[in-house]
Amino acid sequence: MIKAVIFDVDGTLAETEEVHRIAFNRAFADAGLDWDWDRDLYRQLLKVTGGKERMAHFVQESGAPPLPPERIAALHKAKTDFYTRMADSGEILLRPGVEEFLDALREKGVKLAIATTTSLPNIEALLSSALGPQWRARFVAVAAGDMVAAKKPAPDVYQLALRQLDLPAAACVAVEDSRNGLRSAKAAGLRVIAVRSAYCADDDLSGADVTLADCEGLTLEVLARF
Ligand SMILES: [Mg+2]
């Protein structure tokens, strides 16, 4: 019997990556940089988890002179501000099927948790806009990228969620859309439901316990298989 479901955010709860990409580009333009991340490039860059790490990797790969960490941090803050504004204005919606699944889990008494590489302000912006200001009360645990030392595919963020839940990995299942996320959850000893998403459509999700084409496949029947 599964006692908790731990959700990834980007690509899983919502197709946020396109909004992240636009927010990055607005931050670059705002800072007078001529960087423009198009969709194909961004798909490549998504292999690097974490916004600051992604920018540093891009600078390194492009052969440009390295940016000092404080410049990267300032760019990342500006990007988060743009993202938050876009989320607040309702430009991001939950994927079809997600809210119904969250409601069904709550009715069943299954706990909800989040384990994401994204930062807390991003989660707050998305979920308060999508689920209302009381969203936090629905989740027993919220483990974000800025709370752990190592981002996915390291298991840290899932281990933190499990500590907050006070449950063993065997009592929980993770929902993920990416290879890095799947590896992270597996490294924490979790079983995984993988859902295909727009930006990670080609990710190797072998090793997931269940793979679904979309979030509308997330049901209590699927959960009952565990
Ligand atoms: Mg994801």
From TrEMBL:
Pfam families reported for this sequence: Hydrolase
Can you tell which superkingdom this protein's organism belongs to? Answer: Bacteria
Q: Output this protein's name.
A: Phosphatase
One function term, GO molecular function aspect: hydrolase activity
